[in-house]
Amino acid sequence: MAAATTPVGQTQVSETVHSGSVGFDLTKPPVIEGFAPAPRPREEGFKAKFIRKTKENPFVPIGCLGTAGALTYGLIAFKRGKTRQSQLLMRTRIFAQGFTVVAILVGVAATALKSRK
Q1: Gap between the Cα atoms of 56 and 73, Å rounded
Q2: TM spans, by residue (predicted)?
Q3: Which end of the chain is more exposed for a tag (fewer CB within 10 A), N or C?
Q4: Distance from C-alpha of 82 to C-alpha of 106, rounded to nearest angstrom
Q5: Three-class SS of residue 39?
């Protein structure tokens, strides 16, 4: 009895490939029955996105500005030798950073709850 085998690493090709005919067009998405793709979102510039995000959660930019202001004023006070005022402003900066982190977390939670509804 002789069995028909193919050498390891080689496969038999049962179909012939025609070099000029392609079964699909690479420039268009595939057509799937019963599926309608969502429209592509519009392109949004930096300014428009910043304004939209600020309207969604206005406390994050407020916290960022507070952090930057406390840091700047604290460094100026430190340079002038006002160590007590500088220490107070560094503590204020930590508070402002915490406020910003909490604002981000609240915004994420609100967005998650809004998408569930």
Answers
A1: 29
A2: 59-78, 94-113
A3: N
A4: 36
A5: coil
Q: Between 46-56 and 59-79, two packed helices, what is the crossing angle to 10 degrees?
A: 100
Q: Tell me how far apart the alpha carbons of residues 28 and 109 are, in angstroms, rounded to a whole number.
A: 38
Q: What are the helix and strand counts (H, E) for the chain?
A: 3, 0
Model confidence, pTM: 0.59
Contact of 60 with 100, CB cutoff 8 Å: yes
**Cα angle 49-37-33, degrees, rounded to a multiple of 5:** 175
Comparing CA positions, the residue from 58, 41, 54 lying closest to residue 103 is 58
- Strand ranges (DSSP E) for 1-117? none
Phi, psi (rounded to 5 degrees) for 46: -60, -45
106, 97 contact by CB (below 8 A): no
